Amino acid sequence: xxxxxxxxxxxxxxxxxxxxxxxxxxxxxxxxxxxxxxxx
Length: 40
Known about the structure:
Layout: H1 2-39
């Protein structure tokens, strides 16, 4: 039971980290590419 709970918690934590990384990369890409598109 304890192991299952830990596994569930770690998976949710991993998905939160994965989502945060994906979001930050998307924002960074958008911020980095916007001036290039505007200047072009």
